[in-house]
Amino acid sequence: MQKIYLSQFGYLPASARNPSLGGLLDASTWTKAVQDFQSFAGLNVTGELDEETMQLMSLPRCGVRDKVGFGSDNRSKRYALQGSRWRVKGLTYKISKYPKRLKRADVDAEILRAFSVWSEFTDLTFTPKTTGPVHIEIKFVESEHGDGDAFDGMGGTLAHAFFPVFGGDAHFDDAELWTIGSPRGTNLFQVAAHEFGHSLGLSHSDVRSALMAPFYRGFEPVFKLDSDDVLAIQALYGKRTTQGGNGLNPTSGGAYPKTTQKPVFSPPKTPRDDQLCKDPKIDALFNSADGETYAFKGNKYYRLTENSVADGYPKSISDGWPGLPGDIDAAFTYKNGKTYFFKGTKYWRYNGRSVDGDYPKEISEGFTGVPDHLDAAMVWGGNGKIYFFKGSKFWRFDPLKRPPVKSSYPKPISNWEGLPNSLDAALQYTNGYTYFFKGDKYYRFNDRTFAVDYADPPFPRPSGHWWFGCKNTPSTTGNIMDNTEESNLPSSYNYDDNDDALLFDAAFVPLHTLWLILLSLAIHYSIAWLEYDI
Fold it and tell me: Which helix or strand (DSSP H or E) is residue 95 part of?
């Protein structure tokens, strides 16, 4: 059960949820996962499942992962900048399914009060609706409810919510005994205020007094939003500049329990290998089938967290992927779970860390129509096709078509507005954006506008600072922007400079499940393919 728990909340890979695979989990990975949980929760870090650790694991809690990516640092600076937020400040919501044991009017009042927690410190406004499309849809449901993340009955997981990039909806387990202003049951106000933090783009905090800490500690009659929560929400939406605000100022409710560690916006850690900071140019970058992000450089590879390089890296490519040479040209993981590496005229196919039989093979044999000596490769989320880049050209490869590369290719990279020629690496990151790397810089590509994204600081940005956690490299073309300067920027800058929601600007659709999100993305991208013919 502990393995399932640690996997569910981001401390172990998803494979750990399969009991039949439990024996394959090596001792060091298990110990590191327990240590990470203990560190996040402010416990004595022993790596052992002691009584204190087990007791905390048994507490009711939010169902959102503590660590957004396995092995990542919680709510690290780069995650806050690359996580998602709404681009409009006037948001709407509706309760499409009410709890069974509370009056609707009472629920309406508590939900409005929970939203007002966040409008008190920002210019966000929240307007309830009863029909039509809204930004945030709220449901009280039980067990499996269509989003692939089933509730577990009373206790355990209380609720979960989606970040703006995934629609912002909030689901509450109706098997809980939801109560209002009472020490009995589970307090609706405090849980709702926490979940709406996720709906607005905040992940879990490791500050014990923060509302966005993940564990529920019971009803408390006096509520005050922690400074950690205030800094986080204002980093996304700016400080409040109006006298207005939506909702009632909360005077009662609850708070979430504490954990202690670093604050949300602490600077990224310096990676163990200074060479990557001296020369941030990389050979390849890809997401593995287990959700990790790896960067290759020379004969070394690095596992990336949300803001830096993971402890213990770099490592030798030959140790991590036996049989694979260094100085890789390009790499990507396809939807079949296989990872493909390219070098010169050859390519290798790996299942996890094991090379498949009869590899390497010639690129001309397995990827007909694709050139040798590539610069970069990626699977684009817009259409699931594989894109290869070399020099000033790119090729689109569809393994289901014959021929897999249409006669109209190659096409100029200039079709991807704002991108340079001769790229080094490319990937679609977990936040839905596509990133391109060249030299010591990277570009964030907006698939909606089909151009390099507009932001402040502008792109390209130094990859050493923003991706590899290099403290002694600039964050922009000028000096490093420290945390104080960043938090004190005008609201328009705080509002625009984050790597954030891919699609949900002014237009919005009530998205109930991830497959509906993907369906809407497919429809959206089909228009882009026709317009840009990529």
Answer: strand 90-97
